[in-house]
């Protein structure tokens, strides 16, 4: 079960030796393709929440259509059954979405206060007619940097270690439903995966695990052989057990 961070984690790209986000996403998706073809390992993504997040992430960062095509081809899209999983999924899902909204609303209020206080203090002794002249430059050069630092500290203090988006909870619900391992670099997902009894794999370890599988392919096996799998290694769904 892939969270968006399974494809976008910076540490994973550094370990794999890719400087660009798009190259890193392609490399991970190629490994997923090899694992699917050779071992029958299926990587799922909650639809539409996490799938949409991945798609938008690739688009915003200028990735070409090949990245989206790989996402569509090699990741299995599935909507989590929030009503039948043996946790109060729908209530939990709504609560997380509500909590994210409230956190962001609080951050917005604090940001507005920073803008207003900084601007008023700066121009307290200046003539009113000069305020517009300098306002844009000051906001860009001074206040914008302060806002950026505030956002990072705010997220670290309030959002780190909690489930703060609907896609996060979709990842856990669908993993619980399918008895799948979760791949992510999100501490909140890791923490709640442990609470729900769901297997968790750090995003920066996942590509190396696939590479380790592929290293042990028979030398003469260039293409996957259908109907020739070792049934003793298959999971309940007929797919190879992973992790």
Automatic annotation (TrEMBL):
InterPro entries: RNA_free_RNase_P. Its EC number is 3.1.26.5. GO terms for biological process: tRNA 5'-leader removal. It holds the Pfam family PIN_5. Keywords: Endonuclease, Hydrolase, Nuclease, tRNA processing. Residues 226-236 have a biased composition (Basic and acidic residues). GO terms for molecular function: ribonuclease P activity. The keyword RNA-binding does not apply. Residues 218-243 are annotated as: Disordered. Transmembrane segments: none annotated. It catalyses: Endonucleolytic cleavage of RNA, removing 5'-extranucleotides from tRNA precursor. Belongs to the HARP family. HAMAP family: RNA_free_RNase_P. NCBIfam families: PRK04358.1-4 (NF003343), RNA_lig_partner (TIGR03875). RNA-free RNase P that catalyzes the removal of the 5'-leader sequence from pre-tRNA to produce the mature 5'-terminus. This is RNA-free ribonuclease P. It comes from Methanosarcina barkeri 3.
């Amino acid at each position: 079960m892939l969270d968006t961070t399974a494809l976008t984690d910076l540490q994973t790209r550094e370990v794999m030796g890719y400087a660009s986000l798009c190259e890193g996403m392609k490399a991970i998706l190629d490994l997923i393709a090899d694992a699917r073809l050779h071992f029958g390992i299926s990587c799922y993504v909650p639809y539409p929440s996490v799938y949409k997040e991945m798609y938008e992430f690739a688009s915003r960062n200028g990735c070409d259509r090949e990245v989206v095509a790989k996402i569509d081809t090699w990741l299995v899209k599935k909507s989590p059954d929030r009503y039948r999983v043996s946790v109060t999924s729908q209530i939990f899902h709504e609560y997380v979405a509500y909590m994210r909204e409230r956190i962001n609303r609080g951050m917005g209020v604090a940001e507005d206060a920073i803008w207003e206080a900084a601007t008023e203090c700066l121009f307290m002794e200046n003539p009113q007619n000069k305020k517009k002249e300098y306002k844009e430059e000051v906001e860009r050069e001074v206040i914008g940097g302060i806002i950026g630092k505030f956002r990072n500290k705010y997220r670290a203090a309030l959002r780190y270690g909690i489930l703060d988006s609907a896609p996060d909870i979709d990842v856990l619900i669908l993993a619980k439903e399918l008895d799948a391992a979760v791949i992510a670099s999100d501490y909140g997902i890791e923490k709640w995966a442990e609470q729900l009894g769901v297997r968790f794999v750090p995003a920066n370890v996942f590509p190396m695990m696939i590479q380790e599988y592929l290293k042990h392919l028979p030398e003469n096996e260039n293409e996957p052989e259908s109907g020739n799998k070792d049934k003793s290694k298959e999971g309940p769904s007929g797919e190879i057990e992973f992790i």
